[in-house]
Amino acid sequence: MDNRLITVNQLFNLLERHYQGSIEDWWPHESKHEIVIGAFLVQNTTWHNVELSLNQIRQKASFSPKTIRQLSQQELKKLIHSSGFHENKSRNIIEFFEWTKTFEDQYDKIKAHFGPSLRKELLKRRGIGPETADVLLMYVFNEPVFIADNYARRLFQLLKAPVPLTYPAVKQFAENNGELTVAEWAAFHGWIIQFAQQHLRPNQKASDHFLTGYQLIANHGNGN
């Protein structure tokens, strides 16, 4: 049987229908500062480990950039020990909040200052790669971006997307062919993670699911 062809927006609709509506607070947080800290901590570890570290920071510093800047790196390392790589992560968090201090720790001021070059500026910060930059752009700076993480690339592979399975290529394909709001991109990200955790775990046997038989294509007249 031939594959049924779908666009990025149609894939979004299929996921929305299956998971029945929007995901509220996919990235739970008390403040955007907590999201920033979580984005650094989640690198190369599980969210469970991150939650343990966030609870420690909540008790000690209430996610206040000013309070975090007043901590020694040794103190912060102890607070985030459960997240692993605490030497680098503690330094990255402290240096990031030293940078935001210039803008009074206000993300709208940072966004207004850098405008379209914000992603490029974030990538200059220690410990921020493409995925972390896009997480911050969407969840902290409210920019409509696609997070082409491992889950997304596995899904694109499953759907035989006509694009190399690299972070930049998958991101570009999704953003060029998807017409979604910031909230919809955020929900899309959450649903992709849910789907991949259910159906695309490493070494998991292939099985039928609601996306079986679909193939992802570019919009008509849009090559990538």
From TrEMBL:
Top-level taxon of origin: Bacteria
Biological process according to GO: base-excision repair
Domain HhH-GPD, first and last residues per copy: 41-198
Gene3D superfamilies for this protein: Hypothetical protein, domain 2
InterPro entries xrefs: DNA_glycosylase, HhH-GPD_domain
UniProtKB keywords: 4Fe-4S, Iron, Iron-sulfur, Metal-binding
GO molecular function: 4 iron, 4 sulfur cluster binding; catalytic activity; metal ion binding
CDD domains listed in its UniProt record: ENDO3c (cd00056)
Protein name in UniProt: DNA-3-methyladenine glycosylase III
